[in-house]
Structures are given as C-alpha cells and as structure tokens.
Amino acid sequence: MNVVYEPKGRAREYSELACNLYRGCTHGCRYCYAPSCMRTTGEKWHATAAPRRDVLQNLEKDAIKLRGDSRCILFCFLSDPYQPIERTERLTRQALGIVAKHRLNSQVLTKGCADLIQEDIGLMKDARTQLGITLCFADDSIRSDWEPGASTVDDRMTVLKAAHKEGIFTWVSLEPVIDPDQALTVIRMAHPYVNFWKVGKLNHMKEQEKTVNWGKFLYDAEELFTKFGAKYYIKNDLRSFAMKQ
Ligand code: SF4
Asked: Is 27 in the pocket of ligand 1 (CB under 6 A)?
C-alpha cells in the first residue's frame, strides 16, 4: 500500500489502518508526537501544512486493493484532517468520498475546524464514518495553552452534539491526559454525546507526568464511566498503573 498503513505501538491501540493526508499541522500542540515520528522539529512541523503529494490518487489505489477489508482506516495520526488548509484543499472530504465509494470503514480523529467538520457530517453519516474528537480539557484557557491552534472546547462540544444527533458514532480521544481534574470534567460534560471513549496518559514529558497520580486518575475515570454506563478503552500505558494505587 502507498498511503494507507498499519500503525504500530501506541497508535495501533487506536486503529488497525491509518492514512495521513497532510504533511505538517498548524495546531501546534505542545505534546505533539508527530515531529519526532517524522524526524523533524516542532517548529518546522507546526509552521505550515501541505497536501501530501498525490495522496488522493494513492488512496484510491489503496482503496481498490483493500476492497472487502473490514478494518477501519483512521484519518489522521500525524496531522489533523480538519486544520485550516482543509478549507481550500478539501482532501479529507474527498478521502471520505473515496473510502465510501469502495465501501471501506473509516474514522476521523480531529481537534480541528468545527465548521468544516459540520459540513462533512452528512458525508460521514452516509459513509458510516466514526467521528473521533480529541478532548482533554474542559477549560478553554488551559486548552489554548496546550493546543494553541486547535478548536475551542465549545466548538468541539458543538460538533459532538451535532454528530451524535445525526446518529453518527462518536468517540472521544481523552489523550493525552495532562490534568486529571480537567479530564474527569470532560467525561462528566460530554458523556451524553459520546458512544465510546479512548483514554491515554501523557507520554514523553517526564516532569509533567510525575505530577500526576495515574493510578488514582484511572480509578476515578473508571468509576465515572461505570456510573454513566459509558463504553471505554484504557490504553495499555495507563492501564499499567492499575496496581499502583
Ligand atoms: S493535532 Fe495532532 S498532529 Fe496536529 S499538532 Fe496536535 S498533536 Fe500534532
């Protein structure tokens, strides 16, 4: 395959297949893992985004090869599919059309432009695309400190509500958890509109990680999920703290 690939490691816990449409991401999240994966600096990766060369043509070729494969293709791990450049390029919209045409399963993971996501909700509904929203903070001032170029908490909630109302399968990526109180507030705030939760801890920021009692957070989060009857998945690196309370 050319642009559809099988993620490895922690990403594999999210999806068996993935496709990155853009190179670079202007959201500029402080915890971003993409620059190290792509062997570049955060400064360069977050400065600009551009369509990957021939990405849609290659996706079409991969989709033909994948016909009949029930695995879900995730857009995107190393860039956001709804960052501002999508307004002019519409790669995500076209990519969803391609996978739908070939009857492949798809999911989106974004913290991007709410208006663009809303415009594609009808397409996602027809294609039975699962919509994943990253939501780690309830307080937008904390969100803007960690994810300066991404959409606001209110915008993400609006999208979740709209998609859920339309019958789209919604999931929240509660990752990376940085502030446990914020994460628990997100669960309380968003659970009526979320079909599935995926929860993972902060990684690669040792000093920040040390400030969190991960065992306690895990206990509190599972207690809330149970209370709300929510379906969820705890990623392995957070799950490993279960015995350390
Ligand atoms: S949305 Fe993802 S790829 Fe973009 S800056 Fe944030 S963590 Fe990095």
From this structure: yes
201 inside domain? no
Give the distance (Å) from ligand 1 centre to CA of residue 97.
23
Give counts: helices (H), strands (E), the chain.
Answer: 13, 10
Q: How far is the CA of 25 from the centre of ligand 1 (A)?
A: 6
In a domain, 178, yes or no: no
Query: What's the domain range around 95?
Result: 4-172
Is there a domain that residue 182 lies in?
A: no
How many domains does one find in the chain?
1
* Residues 164-176: tens digit of each pLDDT: 999 999 999 999 9
Mean pLDDT of the chain: 96
The DSSP 8-state label assigned to residue 12 in this structure reads G
The two three-digit tokens of residue 242, written as one number: 């279960």
Q: Which two tokens stand for residue 21?
A: 């449409």
Task: Answer whether the bond into residue 176 is a cis peptide, omega within 30°.
Answer: yes
- C-beta of 35 in contact with ligand 1 (< 6 A): no
The enclosing domain of 117 has a CATH number of: 3.20.20.70
Question: Is ligand 1 within 6 A of the CB of residue 28?
Answer: yes
Q: What is the pTM of this model?
A: 0.96
88-117 per-position pLDDT tens digit: 999 999 999 999 999 999 999 999 999 999
